[in-house]
Design brief:
180 residues; alpha/beta; Rossmann fold; six-stranded mixed sheet; three-stranded antiparallel sheet; 23% helix; 34% strand; binds inosinic acid; binds magnesium ion
Length: 180
């Protein structure tokens, strides 16, 4: 088990497994009939996944535009769980095919809010790509169009995802097991 910051980390999805899966996901995206693709990476958690996925998309011949939206959800796990935009995109989405990229689909509140926002703004289509799907935690009817892996119901870190601002830099996805 890798030791990072004095903690044992169990590897759930290795860097090479993620890289292989990203190429498959990019091919799935490329098989859709997108005319004017705008990728929107949801910060902060998706920045590494988005960076890798858009390069895999390049390898399949896609040339998306790329935007970032900074979303935060308050009261997570509670009924009131409220989603807020901390920094919006600069681009117009009207008439465009939007691909939202996030790290994890859990309750679905973040992605449902963001998807509805882009539809309200007149997007031609809105699809969702997530690295991980925690299906057991869903509180909405939302499903992703492109899913990297089904995620067990544990708190995961790495590959952009953090716990208390730590571990985003890990090249793999893992679970913190405790002091090494
Ligand atoms: P939801 O689908 O709105 O409940 O929230 C999903 C968001 O919660 C993701 O974008 C992550 O930022 C965060 N999140 C959920 N589960 C985890 C986890 O296991 N590790 C790190 N972040 C998580
Ligand atoms: Mg997030």
């Amino acid at each position: 088990m890798p030791i990072v910051r004095g903690k044992d980390i169990e590897v759930l999805f290795s860097a090479s497994a993620i890289a292989r899966r990203n190429l498959e996901l990019a091919k799935e995206v490329a098989s859709r009939d997108y005319h004017d693709l705008l990728v929107i990476s949801i910060l902060k958690g998706s920045f590494i996944f988005a960076a890798d996925l858009i390069r895999a998309m390049h390898d399949t011949g896609l040339s998306p535009e790329v935007e970032f939206i900074f979303i935060s959800s308050y009261g997570k796990g509670t009924v009131s769980g409220e989603v807020k935009i901390l920094r919006d995109i600069d681009n117009d989405v009207a008439g465009r095919d939007v691909l939202l990229i996030d790290d994890i689909l859990e309750s679905g509140k973040t992605l449902q809010y963001t998807r509805n926002l882009m539809l309200d703004r007149g997007a031609r289509s809105v699809a969702i790509a997530v690295l991980l799907d925690k299906t057991t935690r869903r509180q909405t009817a939302l499903e992703a169009d492109f899913v990297g892996f089904e995620c067990p119901d544990s708190f995961v870190v790495g590959y952009g995802m953090d716990v208390a601002h730590a571990f985003r830099e890990l090249p793999f996805v893992g679970v913190v097991k405790g002091d090494a």
